[in-house]
Amino acid sequence: MTNAQTMTHKRDLILVGEKEFAAQVSARVIDKPKLDVWMILIPIFFIFYFWQLKRYAKGRKTFAEKFLITRERALDEALRSAESGKGADVEQLVQASDIPVETRQGYRSWVALLVEHYRDLILAQGSSYPALVRSTYKTRSNYLLFLNRLNQVEREFDAALKPHLEKATEDVNGIIKLMEESVISLRRQLAEEIFP
Length: 196
Fold this sequence. Notes:
It is built from eight helices and no strands.
């Protein structure tokens, strides 16, 4: 495998890890409909349950896709930067986003941190996502320090974004809080799995 193929392969490993993470977050954030025993006895309610279940599955898929948009863009920029040996063009990613101007500084900080992280992983040694993380961060403590920094940058971006979401989304504070708590918990769990 050439160096470019190796980097592309590592990018793919990272993307698979991010997709798994997005699926886990969506499972925590989106409520799954409950099947009560009595629903089985009344066919119309059973059909309604399956309709809700289908909507739940579609909602989780859509959530995961949206959750990954910025991450995929940052990952592609990290790959381009690693292959070229030049700095990442974070500003181009920020300009390509469709977010309010007032939130761009927080978004810029988040994207820059993601690109730096992904670039480090792409340049690391390893044949799996956990191996790339271990190679990059060496210890659980170092990885947790990075994750804490990432959590903080995301919270700052979320805080800047909240006023713009309140106009379009009911209970935005509750939704953002649930997402943040889920992400933090899942990242800690991932760190424990990668660094047993």
